[in-house]
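[Solved] Which block belongs to which protein?

Original post:
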Amino acid sequence: MATDTSATSQSPQPTGRLEQSNPDYDPNIVIEAQNLTKVYRDFWGRQKVRALNALDLEVRKGEIFGLLGPNGSGKSTTIKLLLGLLFPTGGRAIVLGKNATDVAKNERVGYLPEESYLYKFLNAEETLDFYGRLFDIPAKIRKERVQELIQLVGLEKAKRRQLREYSKGMTRRIGLAQALINDPELILLDEPTSGLDPLGTRDMKDMILKLRDQGKTIVMCSHLLADVEDVCDRIAILFQGDLKEMGRVDSLLKVSGETQIKAENLPESAHEEIRQIIAKHGGKNIVVDNPRTTLEDLFLNIVRESEQRPGMRPTSTTGGDADSATPPADPSN
């Protein structure tokens, strides 16, 4: 859900503009969490649950970053902290060069929640026009933007139907369009393919990839591991508020110690021959590489290990590149 903050952003924000005051600000890092912690407490101030524990991560400009974890792992809490809807108990989060608690940065953020709460008596055009007005988008540009987004999400034939008549899949599509109305730099997607049929799921993934190609930065939460595997450049796996693994998807899923050979146009008689024989028989696109496990297997293994070893923290990015690894948080912090 794109969030309007035009009224709030007019007031001064003395601590928010890190891109001006912080000499270490890197414009290529869109999100930076440092020892980010959230503890929910009861009425008496006693700790009820530690939803997020000393999270350290970076999301870089122009990448698709996936947040994975079972229910209660801290994914939604992380998203709410990034949006400034919650205040951290410890640590801090920097979003687009500003403290996450500075809501002015939400003018550059688009958000699709797991459940889109839209006005059911409006149609698609009226819905997008309404949210465009909240962002003070000029009428001419707003009209063009509305039609562009309706075409992007594939609702041209239903753009004048009231949202009360939309299926869940159609509601997800108009929800995505609404999240993009302000042409955001950062897009947060919570279960973006929820309720979509296979064709709609493929269209949604193609739209996400297209947004990345346009230079957008995307953070998505999903329980559908295959969808994350298809579109994400890097992922972080959370379990009970702890970061368990982070790195590039292709590196994390690579199986070390095994080699696979792929070739095209080989005769049946050559299947058991070695690589030199493959070349002799005119095989094309010869590939010698490490086979990959699946993201689902990686996820389940990490969760099972975490259940057996509750205090386990990641010591390195398994099979990942060194610059994408995040060191474990200092427990003394």
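(Second protein starts here: sequence line, then its structure tokens.)
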Amino acid sequence: MAEAHGSTAAGAAGVGLSKGDTGRGAATGSSVIAGGGTATAQGVLEVEGLSASYGPVKALDGVTLRAEQGRITAVLGANGAGKTTLLRTISGLVRPTAGRVLLNGEDVTRSPVEAMVTKGMSHVPEGRGVIAELTVDENLRVGSLFRGKVGQDEFDRVYDLFPRIKERRTSTAHTLSGGERQMLVIGRALLARPKLLLLDEPSLGLAPRIVAQIFALLRRLVDTEGLSVLLVEQNARSALSVADTGVVLNLGRVVVTDDAHRLAGDEDLRHAYLGF
């Protein structure tokens, strides 16, 4: 497989952010070749040689990656590359056939799904799942039942982060726009103050303006609160504009891991795997 290319970064400003607000620091460590490599410092998340299958079909094949505190790691690739399966396997929804998952140094590979939240992981799956008949406030409170004791200050914090859903807090979820539903499910995931947030296709079906708002908020949480985000995105251009590190998957394997700016500036790799 190809090694991480060293092209000059594109230099474009982040989506929805001014040039001075992208918040990305220099990438730590050297580029990783084909999903392997040795991490120089422990990440919030360490995925080592992870494989998973659906019957005879191998969806992940020895995936290795890491997500560091206070950084956004974007997982990119075409449909069928294994991106969603990767998040589902990390969070325990799919059991791996090989490899392991470390969260803050603890092996959580076989931990039950419900234990992941108390260990510091929140997963926002694709699809913006809400209970349509309940209000915004009720959806948040139902979500909090699975997150241990959540104080009123945490609900207030979510409403401060998403003023739009605060305005709609008494509205039933079926009346919300797609963007408002996405804000609701992300807010619900943030109630437990996770150390690691897994986000699957948050931009899917949303207007560019809403995508920019959501990505800008993620960047702010990462920069100000030290949140670690593992972001799966089909919209590679937008994801790389806000991420610190990019990981490209193809047919269940890591093709390359590198600084997001360098990946965005590598025309050959973009055309081969990312479609822009």
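Accepted answer:
You had them paired correctly. Confirming on the second one: Confidence is low (pLDDT under 50) at residues 1-23, 25-40.
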